[in-house]
Structure formats: C-alpha cells, structure tokens
Amino acid sequence: MLDVIDRNILRVLQRNGRITNQELAAQAGISPSACFDRLRKLREQGYVSDIVALLDPQKLDRALLVFIEVMLDRTTSNVLGDFAAAVQDMPEILECHMVAGGFDYLLKARVEDMAAYRAFLGNSLFHMTGIRETRTFAVLEEVKYTTALPI
Is domain 64-138 classified as CATH 3.30.70.920? Predict the structure, then answer.
C-alpha cells in the first residue's frame, strides 16, 4: 500500500526522472537515505518499471502520428498470437492494444510523413496474414500528450 510520501516520490519522478536522490528527498520531505530505501522498494514492487528519455519525434523524422484500427479475419488464439508477435518487430508501431468493440486492435504508430506511412502499410501491415480491414486516423494536432499517471 502506498502512503503519501511514496505517492509524492512517484509524482516527482514522473515530472523529472533525472532528479538526484538529494533533490527527490528534499521534495518528498524525507532524508536522502530514507528516500533511497523507499525508491528501491518502489522499484522492487514494480511501481517504477523504468526511467526513460522522451525524444522529440519531429527532430527524428517521425512527425506523423497515426492511429490504426485493425480487424482480423478470425479471433482464434493462433491468429491473435501471430498478430501480437508480428507487431513486436515493427519499429513504427509504438503501441498495440487489443480492444473490445467494433475492431480487434488499436495501433499507435509514428512515421516520417504520409508517403512513409503508405510504404509502411504496403510493405509491412498489409503483408500480415489474418488482417481483414484497417482504418487509419492521421493526427492533425496533438492537443495533450503526457506519460504521467494521476497519482
């Protein structure tokens, strides 16, 4: 069970993963040694799975963000497994979610531009077996983007 101090540590880490233990302890209102121990426990318990750098997609030629609805021919365990395994090898796909509703998967992908997306569709996605239909939604403007969870 998380207490107020643990939640505060997690809030601060979400804003700045590069913060020093000294600074984190000061913001959490505890000693550096207590902060170090608490953070170690939070990692061991799986509350903190990783600390990463967030990169600017525009500077890395990945300006176009698209969401893709995927409908499969069948939803048998082998078709689902094959699809899940195949998307792991596609670096353009940032996220893949199996969903309930009118389609089977929702993909989030980043590519350079619409021509690159068309090439991705033709060279990768459309070659996968088991796909019946896709629908693409190109993002015109990112209104909100965050990786921070409400704690």
Answer: yes
